[in-house]
Write a structure and sequence with these properties.
Layout (H helix, E strand, L loop, with lengths): L1 E7 L9 E6 L2 E7 H6 L1 H9 L6 E2 L3 E3 L9 E5 L3 H6 L9 E5 L4 E2 L5 E2 L12 E7 L8 H6 L1 E9 L3 H7 L17 E3 L2 E4 L9 E6 L2 E7 L7 H9 L9 E3 L21 E6 L3 E8 L6
Parallel strand pairs: 6-16, 8-12, 9-18
Antiparallel strand pairs: 1-2, 1-5, 1-13, 2-3, 3-4, 6-7, 10-11, 10-16, 11-12, 11-13, 14-15, 14-17, 17-18
Length: 287
């Protein structure tokens, strides 16, 4: 099945986010986002017994599909060719960094280029998994079973900030990976029984031109090993997001480098799951 996080277009941000079930161009209301993540098994069971939607999909506003308490865990250099284009070796174990929930935005949200990134911002299409159960010290098999489903993620990045941090032996990616509105996440969730996460096509276009075209089959660490590694240290809880890394084709790896600038439109797609579009705007739109 496919779920969606939405608000009424008439009320916008004034209404709490709702979860629903997608049936073509209609949506069947289910419950509030908070209620859904408080008892996923019950709501999934109820969703499985719904047969049609009553709300036109076109009349809804897309929303972030996870609660504000969610952790956003990102995987660095999880595709060999992406590592090569950045001059970085393939990690021998999952190399992780964190995003702040406050950077998460749905498709269509303008993304400002801060003054610290005068050349623009980079794109990174990723398959993101959303955790459906509390998991600590999970085996690989248990980890995959504990996922709610999958969506698209654009790990929009400030390379100038990243490169500055990497001049230090203790370099961190906190600033470069947490620009305002830069965690673009799909509002649609394809449940884990509906897709083969190990064989999905990922693409990015910049103003309609193909930039990335890869497959999750090339991931170094699939979700089983990722969850096993993460949950040895951090307890995963319903709504946590694991962004699994990006294939080759980012702007940083091009010669000359190429980035999204104000006026650009970036679209990322996990084919068979959903897409997300980001209009890029100037620094003045940050506040």
């Amino acid at each position: 099945m496919k779920l969606i996080a939405y608000r009424s277009a008439a009320e916008g941000d004034k209404n709490p986010t709702q979860m629903g079930v997608v049936f073509g161009e209609t949506v069947a209301p289910l419950t509030s986002l908070e209620s859904f993540y408080a008892d996923i098994p019950t709501w999934r069971d109820k969703a499985s017994r719904i047969r049609e939607g009553s709300l036109p999909l076109a009349g809804l506003s897309l929303a972030v599909p996870v609660p504000q308490t969610s952790k956003v865990i990102c995987v660095a250099i999880n595709y060999v060719e992406h590592g090569k284009e950045g001059g970085l070796p393939t990690p021998g174990f999952p190399n992780l960094f964190a995003r702040w929930y406050s950077t998460l935005v749905p498709s269509g949200t303008p993304v400002p280029v801060p003054a610290s990134e005068p050349e623009g911002i980079d794109w990174e299409v990723e398959l993101a998994a959303i955790v459906g159960e509390t998991m600590a010290d999970a085996t690989q098999e248990r980890g995959v079973r504990g996922l709610l489903g999958y969506t698209v993620f654009n790990d929009l990045s400030g390379r100038a900030s990243q490169l500055e941090a990497m001049t230090l032996s203790t370099g961190q990616w906190g600033l470069g990976k947490n620009l305002d509105n830069s965690g673009v996440i799909g509002s649609f969730i394809a449940t884990s029984d509906a897709v083969d996460a190990g064989n999905l096509r990922l693409t990015t276009t910049l103003d309609g031109e193909m930039m990335q075209d890869g497959t999750t089959a090339d991931m170094v660490f699939s979700f089983g090993p990722l969850i096993e590694h993460i949950s040895k240290t951090i307890t995963l809880r319903p709504g946590d997001v694991i962004a699994s890394g990006t294939p080759a084709g980012v702007g940083f790896g091009r010669k000359p480098r190429r980035y999204a600038k104000p006026g650009s439109v970036v679209e990322v797609t996990v084919h068979g799951v959903c897409a997300a579009t980001s209009p890029v705007v100037g620094n003045a739109f940050r506040v």
